[in-house]
Amino acid sequence: MTASTIRPAVADGRLPGRVWMYSNYHCNLACTYCLTESGPKAQRRELDPEAMIDIARQALELGFTDLGVTGGEIFLLSRMPEVLAELARSLPVVALTNGTLFSRRLLDEVQQLAELPVALQISLDRPDPDTNDAMRGPDNFAKVVAAIPRLVERGVTVRIATTVESIEDAELDRLCELHRGLGVPDADHVIRPIIARGRAVDHDLGVQADVPDLPAELTITADGAFWSPFGPTVHGGRLDTDLLITRTTRPLSVPAQALLGLVEQRPAGADSTLNIR
Questions:
Q1: 236 in helix, strand or coil?
Q2: Interval 65-77: pLDDT, tens
Q3: Which residues contact 225 (CB under 8 A, 6 or more apart)?
Q4: What are phi and psi of 156, to 5 degrees?
């Protein structure tokens, strides 16, 4: 019954086709605008790899079209390369990473993704080390610009995500020149605003985003299912539950049907006004 309602809703655009999974919340960085207050001391809440693979299979059966994996820093989980490969056998995957952990060993492990529909989306916010690292942490820029061409050389698809409050045209031009030189085309560069949730609130950063501004992409975490990947945020060490749909995450049909019901209750014209991707 649920597949018969979810599949057509995705097909006709009423429900976004991507299902997101928060693999973890801990990170080796502590970015000033992090939605989840991730960092080295963050609580280690994780989705079990087998649960992620099961969610992917159920997403396919329900009619969803692709998957997103985020954190925390996903590659702090030792099995992540093989998990991404397994997820991609169900649906195409975009996986978000800060790009700082690509040792030779990890580069060799992720090379298995080159033949699969997996894109690694790496954060790079500014074309200069000082301004980029001020928001993200020491040596972030150097590690990222070293990792990207090594991934591209191995045939791994790389996307660049730039998260900023604003950026001048000249600076953006230099950033685009940089990512092109690293092997990432313009089509694989996304620019998105900082959202005033999580750690960004403490730094007085970001734009206020209401429910219509946030994509209704089913998001599964260790704590439940949320309206959007911008939903399971953390502030002051406490999980925000304003965008929690249900604590039940499996079967996936339960939160999927709940999200569809909420989407269909929105008034006509209640579309996003922010460029959030």
A1: coil
A2: 999 999 999 999 9
A3: 218, 219, 244, 245, 246, 247, 248, 249, 254, 255, 258, 259
A4: -80, 130
Phi, psi of 152 (to 5 degrees): -60, -40
18 touches 67 (CB < 8 A): yes
| Inter-CA distances, 158 with 21, 95, 119, 162, Å | 19, 10, 5, 13
What are the tokens at 143? 């590690």
For residue 37, give the nearest of 69, 72, 68, 70 by alpha carbon: 72
Residue 151 tokens, joined: 């991934």
pLDDT digits (tens, 9 = 90+) for 136-182: 999 999 999 999 999 999 999 999 999 999 999 999 999 999 999 99
HSE at residue 29, side-chain half, CA atoms within 13 A, is 29
CA distances (Å), 79 to each of 73, 104, 260, in order? 13, 16, 32
Burial class (CB in 10 A: 0-12, 13-18, 19+), 144: buried
Catalogue all structural domains in the chain, each as residue range(s) with its CATH number.
Answer: 2-263 (3.20.20)
Closest CA to 19 of 178, 195, 228: 228
First to last CA, the chain: 30
Q: Which 3 state secondary structure label does DSSP give 46?
A: strand
Whole-structure pTM over 0.90, yes or no? yes
Relative to beta strand 219-221, strand 224-226 is antiparallel
Element (H, E) at 130: helix 129-136
